[in-house]
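A reminder from the course coordinator: this example appears on the midterm review sheet, so study it carefully.

Given structure:
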């Protein structure tokens, strides 16, 4: 009687079959799509294998911490075209990967005792991810773990479709930096080629001199204005920190062969700056905008970072004879960071003029930041920013005010970059050809 299988054992094969069928049915459209693409591209894969390419496997962590293989197609130690994503379509077919999901990490990169890591491995890793899209467009200010955890928390069919569409569009023009230096120069205006985190570290650090440092955000419009305004140009060149802002400079960096590492703009920096200031007990002063705008920004800060002290606000409409009173107000407030929103180039010129008098650590010219955080002007949705199309959103919102800046200004800037690149190549060629 001991050899007679019980009912539970007789049902076990059926139960396993049903579970296997359910797993096969999961993400069926995605698997079908992967199969179709593989079928279409199979001649290319066979051709690559015929030329000596081979599949290279490295270990990664899959769903629920199970080990999966990260597969690439390599020839002579060099990844073949499509090597990163094409072999992984097989893994989508096998159910190891999804089209969209967290990044597949090496085992040593995750500590599954912690909640964020456990959350990330609760779903299948993806061929593309939120972090991948942001990294390609230089706005991956948070780490992979934070981005992946955010994705799992907000995961839905709509989210996955949106990320997949953005991935296709970003793949066409995006790209991670291949060649970067500590500086990137655009038409004679140097920028410090930093990440967002590195820039915040500098902004919040003590100066060691007792005087303020000037932090300037440089975008295409700023470069165009600096080309026409020598005084503004000199201020940008002599600023303590110059940060590259916007997709235009990223494109120009690629054209010039020295790519911008991240799009370090003031609007994205502000909440991260506030979080660090709250942790460190630093104080903030807001200067600029129309009447009541700075107070609106202060209210936003108080709501989200209650431990961060906004020790003073002042609108940007004041007479020259009131400036000394404003300087004294800032210095007596005990602020460590000053944000000035007077618009470029007025804000940079004002900071430069009073730099030796200010007793803050850093004074930043932040342009229209106050309008966004006071609620006066909506900012582009995250998915628009991930496509590098925030400029188009602003143009659509304010076409009469912004068309010259974005349509005419961007075109002129890129033409000047092309001319600069041509002249540089001509000069290098002439130098090489010059006889000894």
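Designed residues:
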């Amino acid at each position: 009687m001991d050899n007679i299988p019980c009912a539970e054992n007789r049902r076990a094969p059926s139960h396993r079959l049903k579970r296997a069928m359910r797993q096969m049915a999961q993400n069926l459209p995605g698997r079908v799509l992967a199969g179709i693409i593989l079928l279409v591209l199979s001649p290319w894969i066979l051709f690559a294998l015929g030329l000596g390419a081979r599949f290279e496997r490295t270990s990664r962590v899959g769903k629920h911490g199970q080990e999966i293989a990260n597969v690439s197609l390599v020839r002579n130690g060099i990844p073949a075209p499509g090597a990163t994503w094409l072999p992984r379509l097989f893994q989508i077919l096998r159910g190891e990967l999804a089209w969209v999901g967290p990044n597949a990490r090496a085992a040593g990169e995750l500590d599954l005792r912690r909640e964020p890591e456990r959350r990330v491995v609760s779903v299948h890793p993806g061929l593309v991810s939120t972090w991948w899209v942001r990294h390609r467009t230089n706005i991956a200010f948070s780490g992979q773990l934070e981005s992946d955890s955010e994705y799992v928390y907000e995961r839905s069919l709509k989210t996955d479709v949106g990320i997949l569409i953005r991935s296709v569009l970003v793949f066409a023009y995006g790209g991670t930096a291949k060649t970067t230096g500590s500086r990137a120069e655009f038409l004679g205006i140097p920028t410090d080629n930093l990440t967002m985190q590195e820039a915040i570290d500098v902004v919040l650090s003590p100066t060691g001199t007792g005087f303020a440092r000037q932090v300037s955000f440089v975008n295409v419009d700023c470069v165009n204005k600096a080309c026409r305004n020598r005084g503004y140009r000199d201020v940008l060149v002599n600023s303590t920190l110059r940060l590259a802002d916007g997709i235009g400079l990223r494109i120009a960096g690629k054209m010039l062969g020295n790519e911008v590492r991240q799009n370090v703009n003031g609007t994205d920096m502000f909440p991260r700056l506030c979080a660090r200031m709250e942790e460190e007990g630093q104080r903030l002063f807001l200067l600029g905008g129309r009447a009541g705008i700075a107070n609106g920004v202060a209210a936003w800060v108080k709501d989200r970072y209650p431990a961060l002290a906004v020790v003073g606000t002042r609108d940007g409409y004041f007479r020259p004879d009131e400036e000394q009173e404003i300087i004294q107000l800032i210095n007596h407030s005990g602020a460590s960071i000053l944000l000035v929103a007077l618009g470029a180039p007025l804000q940079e010129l004002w900071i430069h003029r009073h730099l030796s008098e200010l007793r803050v650590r850093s004074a930043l010219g932040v342009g229209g930041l106050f309008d966004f955080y006071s609620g006066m002007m909506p900012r582009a949705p995250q998915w628009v920013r991930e496509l590098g199309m925030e400029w188009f959103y602003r143009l659509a919102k304010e076409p009469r005010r912004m068309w010259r800046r974005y349509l005419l200004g961007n075109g002129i800037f890129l033409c000047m970059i092309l001319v600069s690149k041509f002249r540089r190549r001509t000069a290098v060629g002439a130098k090489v050809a010059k006889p000894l």
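The first strand starts at residue 54 and ends at 61. The CA atoms of residues 295 and 393 lie 26 Å apart.
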